[in-house]
Amino acid sequence: MAKTAADCTTMAEIRENIDRVDRALMALFAERWSFIGRAAEIKAGLGIPADVPERVREVRDNAHRNAEALGLDGAFYEGIWAELIDCAIAHEKALLGEE
């Protein structure tokens, strides 16, 4: 059952809820990934390359700012987003035949 961290009184409840949040995060990552493939399709029609440095910077800045707004370490989460972006660009390059 979904609980807040403050409502948990046992390690079993903590672990259950961490696992629940992890599943939810994976569902969101899967949804995000679906947009990556679609972006490649749209970019192909418009002649836009997979790697658009201005957009990469914008997404990284957004991650940093969004993390800090929630009291998290902006640099850490920007780093995670950098990994996501690198993987997405590699995937788009493969789809667009840019490799």
Automatic annotation (TrEMBL):
EC number(s) per entry: 5.4.99.5
Keyword Mitochondrion attributed: no
Domain Chorismate mutase: 5-96
InterPro entries: Chorismate_II_sf (IPR036263), Chorismate_mutase-related (IPR051331), CM_dom_sf (IPR036979), CM_II_prokaryot (IPR002701), Isochorismate_pyruvate-lyase (IPR008241)
Matches recorded under Pfam families: CM_2
Domain of life: Bacteria
Organism: Shinella yambaruensis
Annotated protein name in UniProt: chorismate mutase
Keyword tags: Isomerase
